[in-house]
């Protein structure tokens, strides 16, 4: 039987387009995915909101979703992201972690239509310890952010037990597999400068997951663009990169050294990179830096304006370099 060989720079024609472009759209990725042309994206790379960490200054229906009797009546099986959003819910603040996993997979699965057959999706996501009552701040939870806070209430039961590590990244990866995605790697991002927590009865969290998904073909084995020579030294699935400082009030900014190898290995020169939760635009910056076109989605208008200002300047510089 012939050995499976992924599409690589030598087996896939490189893009021959001119200078890269950049665009940032304001809105919910759930809607904006539908606006993209079919098979137009080479790489989707993002770090979406984590469950129960922050509200990003966006509105959320605290009264409804903190009503425990109402939430218990609905139950841990989500009615769907559209229903949740219609009732004023914000991704990451679901009353059940089970809802969050379902919603995140539901949203990102919509990227399947616009992602090329040879494309990849890289998703960075961290875990959460369960607490029935959790403090939610715009810039972080439980004392790690600003002073103003809300209380998120969550019913106990099942995996929802105090101090329980919820394994949200694993549950999300399985949910994506169940939707037909092929999981190629679970990269462990070791964070040597992770902020220590005050707990004295467990070790500190110093890693997150970075999942690499590709599309399941209608027949045969998955074949996709991948340039292994652009990976980190040793091409290992454990990488050590310091946490990057926040930017413009966003405390969860992609470190350049973490995403550069993902972009270089998983998108061709001249290709198009999409970050559907683009925040301050770090992934878009790196994509432009390496000659890829960049597209971002974000629901926070302040971040969208920040990205447009910063990235348009980067694009002008990149265009000048190409003309020299």
TrEMBL record:
Identify a single GO molecular function assigned to this protein.
site-specific DNA-methyltransferase (adenine-specific) activity
Keywords associated with the record: DNA-binding, Methyltransferase, Restriction system, S-adenosyl-L-methionine, Transferase
Catalytic activity as recorded in UniProt: a 2'-deoxycytidine in DNA + S-adenosyl-L-methionine = an N(4)-methyl-2'-deoxycytidine in DNA + S-adenosyl-L-homocysteine + H(+)
Q: Which Pfam family is an annotated match for this chain, by its short name?
A: N6_N4_Mtase
Question: What domain of life?
Answer: Bacteria
Query: Which InterPro entries does this UniProt record tie to the protein?
Result: DNA_methylase_N4/N6, MeTrfase_CN4_CS, RM_Methyltransferase, SAM-dependent_MTases_sf
Give residue spans, biased composition: Polar residues.
8-19
Recorded E.C. number(s)?
2.1.1.-
User: Which parts of the sequence belong to the DNA methylase N-4/N-6 domain?
Assistant: 41-306
Q: Does this entry carry the keyword Methyltransferase?
A: yes
> Which terms does the UniProt entry file under GO BP?
methylation
Renumbered to this chain, region (Disordered) spans 1-22
The question of whether S-adenosyl-L-methionine is a record keyword is answered with yes
Recorded family membership? Belongs to the N(4)/N(6)-methyltransferase family. N(4) subfamily.
What is the protein's given name? Methyltransferase
Origin organism of this chain? Sphaerotilus uruguayifluvii
